Structures are given as C-alpha cells and as structure tokens.
C-alpha cells in the first residue's frame, strides 16, 4: 500500500506533551482523527491538526487517493532542537532552562 507523509519541524511543543495528543488519533480514520484533534483543548492538538490536514492534502492531490478511505497509519513526535536559556539564581550562579521543540509526523494510507 502507498503511504503519504507530512511533517512539521521545530514546533515549540515538548515532544512528551505532543505524544499525549498523538496517541489519541493513531489508527483512526482521518475524519474521526480530525474531530478528536479539533475538540482537544491543547496547543499540540492545533499543530497536529494542521499536519494531518497537510498529509490528507498530499494524499489526495499528489497521489490521487480517496479521502474517505484514508486512515492515520502512524503519527509520532520526535525531539527537535533544544533552546537553552539561563536564569540567574542565588549567589551569582545560574540554572539552565531547556525549551524543547518537536518534529510532528503523520503517515496516512488507504484502507483495503
């Protein structure tokens, strides 16, 4: 079967929080996945919905797949770059603040 992929890179969402949302839609039909992401109140859900819509558009426009037969074959959030910041602390020291980013990927395919 043909798979179509879409990726959003360097999103300012920690991958651990993005994976919580992606676990909700893995293996679902695209219409059901879109509904779940639309009504999940989380910033990662908004970003994931955009990536899912991009993957669906890639499948329909570039590969001629039927949108009604598509499902989310895989979705995952890999760790991107980590922005390192420092906050002043007591006695002239500093502590690190890690602002994590993630790469969110959706893979859609047609059901048999």
TrEMBL record:
GO molecular function, one term: structural constituent of ribosome
Gene Ontology biological-process annotations: translation
Any Gene Ontology CC annotation: cytosolic large ribosomal subunit
One Pfam short name: Ribosomal_L22
HAMAP family (UniProt xref): Ribosomal_uL22_B
Family recorded in the similarity comment: Belongs to the universal ribosomal protein uL22 family.
Subunit structure: Part of the 50S ribosomal subunit.
Task performed by this protein: This protein binds specifically to 23S rRNA; its binding is stimulated by other ribosomal proteins, e.g. L4, L17, and L20. It is important during the early stages of 50S assembly. It makes multiple contacts with different domains of the 23S rRNA in the assembled 50S subunit and ribosome. The globular domain of the protein is located near the polypeptide exit tunnel on the outside of the subunit, while an extended beta-hairpin is found that lines the wall of the exit tunnel in the center of the 70S ribosome.
Protein name in UniProt: Large ribosomal subunit protein uL22
Lineage: Bacteria, Bacillati, Bacillota, Erysipelotrichia, Erysipelotrichales
């Amino acid at each position: 079967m043909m798979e179509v992929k879409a990726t959003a890179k360097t999103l300012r969402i920690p991958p651990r929080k993005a994976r919580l949302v992606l676990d909700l839609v893995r293996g679902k039909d695209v219409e059901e996945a879109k509904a779940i992401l639309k009504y999940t109140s989380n910033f990662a859900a908004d970003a994931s919905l955009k990536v899912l819509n991009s993957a669906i558009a890639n499948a329909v426009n570039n590969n001629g797949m039927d949108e009604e037969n598509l499902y989310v074959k895989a979705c995952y959030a890999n760790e991107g770059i980590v922005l390192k910041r420092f906050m002043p602390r007591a006695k002239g020291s500093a502590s690190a603040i890690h602002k994590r980013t993630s790469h969110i990927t959706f893979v859609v395919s047609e059901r048999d």
